[in-house]
Specification:
The chain is of the alpha+beta class. It is 34% helix and 13% strand. It contains 21 helices and 18 strands. The strands form 5 sheets. A 5-stranded antiparallel beta sheet has the order 12-15-10-9-16, with no helix packed on it. Strands 13-14-11-17-18 form a 5-stranded antiparallel beta sheet, with no helix packed on it. Helix 2 runs antiparallel to helix 17, helix 3 packs antiparallel against helix 4 and helix 3 packs parallel to helix 17. It is elongated, with a radius of gyration of 33 Å.
């Protein structure tokens, strides 16, 4: 079961609704009254939103919920001190400052345009994704502090592999706590915004408000970022903490209706940033994970309705939307309409500003036709540029539209096995649907390259304003989601296989070099109980008067000093096999050049004096060369996960998916029991205890080895093939029954 999240006690939605007092402005969320037909839309915004939500499911950490739709992801980082949350970007660190910001923006999009999300049938999926991250933020509570980061940014960024194997590569990840106002304030904002967005839809909203108030109290009491240290090389709080306090206080007022929070927001304003060498409140830069000042001003203008703050929002939107800017400050406008702020995530900034413009049009400027028309053109230009309306006619969203990015800077979707971005694997094995990449440079140029983390990075905060703005677009345009999304991916080839060559061979032995290979990515994983079989024919050995006991197997080289070689075991007739087993199968994992293969050199031999060994009739020898420089991939050496065949074809034709235990010989179809079957017989019950279990299986095995003799009644019970003989086929059938493998014994 994927979803191991703790159950959170909460009051019912009905009680929640009766307890909350709504500020008067929240009833006006700017839902479009005149929905435009899909034909008038430049793009299918519903599809874009649908895929953006999928991207957030790719980023999920910890135990994946049952509703997660990503077929190539699995539970990961299960030893984290706090399970869940989102991996930040193409890496696997959980940074709470950008994570909480992203959650707040998703919540705002749903709060403002939830009817549109519901109209396209994505409300439940959206809510699930939002609650997933909000639950994580709740779980980060540590009394007077919060967990604000899990994972080491420097160490994580040095390794290129899948989320599922981070702990195998790095061990248990560190977690970091603080009481810093920037991150606790942002977490408070996210939870308050989530509660506002989900009011009446979720039983968790009271819980979210409780923790939002708790975190805000920490942040407002501390009024310092001194303890926010670990993330500073990646997500430093350049803007300080007053913007987060201002932003959070506004959201708490919306979520609770408590005017005390609006008063707190007012108290923050004198401490907010100013324009350079001026006392004018800052209107430049952009709304983002670090600086939420402008989003806070928009909320404050909505909450108060005061002209001063409406004008403050107008300054920011003029600065973004007008080519001449506002005052003496302006931004670069690229051909095609993109407003370009910064090389790192330029599309992110444009979508964030576009979303603020959309909300402003639907709230504080809804009665100003001129401004609404201007800002509408601006926000539609930004989203459309991202989706493909640009000079290159290319989408900047993976898996969407024409000529989308194919090489995003993202480890797990790349699916490589050698800790390299592009050496062994030139193309991504998975489609990172819905991920918005960083975008073009200031000259409009763009490189779709995996190691270009300026143009081609992806991140949860890149998609945040983009997703929120898409909520507006699906409210405005009557678009439809794709009915068959997502299409389940299938592996691009074998994930586990064996390759081998002959080191040496003679008339008394065969010496092999064998590499078991793990290139798994659906999902990336390792096999704990790993083994493989090498099959050979002993007819010439038996003809010389020797027995299977004269055959020895010895490992001469073991890359990981972890393997054992057992056997020979009889497969069928003169065909025998050795089994190479790994005590710890995690030594074979797609985490680096050394670990993706596990090599042994093994010799199968008879006493030198006999000189009758002939490998030419050996099943697994066929096709293997003596070229020490080049190994042959062979499906005649079969690999197993426990008893489950995961690679190769056994000598009887059994192949992957046939559900046949690894050490089971060919089994003929059982015939009906004899007509004169005694009424009281229990087939398989060799020891007479009226049940069939491992004891009976062991007794039959010992008997077939000649170490004990069965009486006539035991022989009758052991003949589970009903063919009058007791042999290894009966043992295999009995093993299937004991293993609950859908085998019926008796009538």
């Amino acid at each position: 079961m994927k979803n191991l999240k703790r159950l959170i006690s909460a009051v019912t939605a009905c009680a929640m609704l009766s307890a909350a007092v709504l500020p008067v402005h929240t009833a006006d969320k700017g839902v479009s009254e005149n929905v435009v037909s899909a034909e008038a839309a430049k793009f299918n915004y519903a599809e874009a939103l649908q895929k953006s939500l999928f991207f957030y499911e790719v980023q999920q950490a910890g135990p994946l919920p049952e509703w997660n739709r990503v077929t190539w992801r699995a539970d990961a980082t299960m030893s984290d001190d706090v399970l869940g949350g989102w991996y930040d970007a193409g890496d696997h660190v959980k940074f709470n400052l950008p994570m909480a910001y992203s959650a707040a923006m998703l919540a705002w999009g749903l709060y403002q345009y939830g009817d549109g999300v519901d109209k396209i049938g994505q409300y439940e999926i959206y809510q699930n994704n939002l609650e997933f991250v909000l639950d994580y933020l709740v779980d980060c509570d540590r009394g007077d502090e919060v967990v604000y980061q899990i994972g080491d940014g420097e160490g994580d960024h040095k390794w290129w592999g899948a989320a599922e194997l981070v702990e195998l590569e790095m061990g248990k990840r560190n977690s970091y706590t603080c009481n810093a106002s920037c991150v606790t304030g942002e977490m408070a904002a996210a939870l308050a915004a989530g509660a506002a967005a989900l009011k009446g839809k979720s039983s968790k909203t009271d819980e979210y408000i409780k923790y939002a108030e708790h975190y805000f109290d920490i942040a407002y009491t501390t009024q310092s970022d001194d303890t926010y240290t670990e993330a500073t090389n990646f997500y430093n709080s350049w803007s300080g903490f007053w913007d987060e306090l201002f932003w959070a206080a506004n959201w708490l007022y919306i979520a609770t209706g408590d005017k005390a929070y609006l008063d707190k927001a007012t108290e923050c304003i004198p401490n907010l940033g100013r324009e350079s060498q001026s006392e004018e409140l800052k209107y430049t830069w952009g709304h983002c994970w670090d600086d939420v000042t402008q989003g806070g001003f928009l909320l404050y203008a909505i909450n108060t309705g005061e002209e001063e703050w409406i004008n403050q929002v107008g300054k920011h939107l003029e600065y973004w939307s007008d080519p001449s800017g506002y005052g003496s400050k302006s931004l670069k406008h690229l051909p095609g309409g993109l407003v370009w702020l910064d090389s790192w995530g330029c599309l992110r900034y444009a979508c964030n500003a576009g979303f603020l413009a959309a909300v402003a049009c639907d709230t504080i400027f809804k009665d100003n036709a001129e401004k609404s028309a201007k800002y509408k053109e601006f926000y539609e230009n930004q989203i459309d540029y991202c989706l493909g309306d640009n000079p290159d006619s290319r989408s900047y969203v993976v898996g969407f539209g024409e000529n989308p990015p194919e090489h995003p800077h993202h480890r797990t979707s790349h699916g490589t096995w050698d800790d390299m971005k592009d050496e062994a694997l030139k193309h991504h094995r998975h489609v990172l649907y819905g991920a918005l990449v960083g975008g073009p440079g200031s000259d409009g140029s763009y490189e779709d390259a995996i190691d270009n983390y300026v143009n081609n990075e992806v991140a949860t905060d890149y998609n945040a304003g983009f997703t929120a703005l898409l909520c507006k677009m699906v409210s405005e345009y009557d678009c439809k989601t794709l009915p068959d999304f997502p299409v389940a991916e299938t592996p691009d080839g074998p994930e586990f296989y064996v390759q081998a060559n002959i080191n040496q061979e003679s008339d008394s032995y065969t010496e092999l070099k064998i590499n078991a290979v793990n290139h798994s990515a659906w999902p990336a994983r390792y096999i704990s109980d790993l083994s493989y079989n090498y099959y050979f024919d002993l007819s010439e050995v038996f003809a010389a008067g020797l027995t299977a006991d004269d055959v020895t197997v010895k490992i001469g080289y073991d890359e990981w000093a972890n393997a054992t070689a057992e056997g020979p075991f009889q497969y069928s007739g003169d065909i025998y096999y050795i089994k190479v087993k790994y005590e710890d199968g995690s030594v074979l994992a797609p985490i680096g050049k050394e670990q993706e293969k596990a090599e042994i050199q093994v010799r199968i031999s008879i006493p030198d004096a006999n000189k009758v060994w002939d490998s030419s009739n050996d099943y697994s020898r066929e096709g293997i060369t003596k070229d020490n420089m080049d190994q042959t991939i062979t499906d005649r050496i079969t690999m197993y996960d426990g008893d489950t065949l995961v690679w190769g074809v056994e000598p009887d034709g059994t192949t992957v998916g046939d559900n046949k235990p690894s050490d089971k010989p060919p089994v003929t179809e059982p015939v009906d029991p004899p007509a004169d079957e005694p009424e009281d017989i229990i087939y398989g019950d060799l020891n007479g205890d009226k049940k069939v279990d491992l004891t009976d299986l062991s007794l039959l095995s010992i008997a077939l080895l000649g170490d004990t003799t069965l009486d006539e009644n035991q022989k009758l019970c052991a003949d589970v093939q009903y063919d009058g003989t007791i042999d290894i086929a009966d043992l295999a059938t009995l093993k299937q029954y004991v293993s609950k493998d859908n085998v019926v014994l008796g009538k």
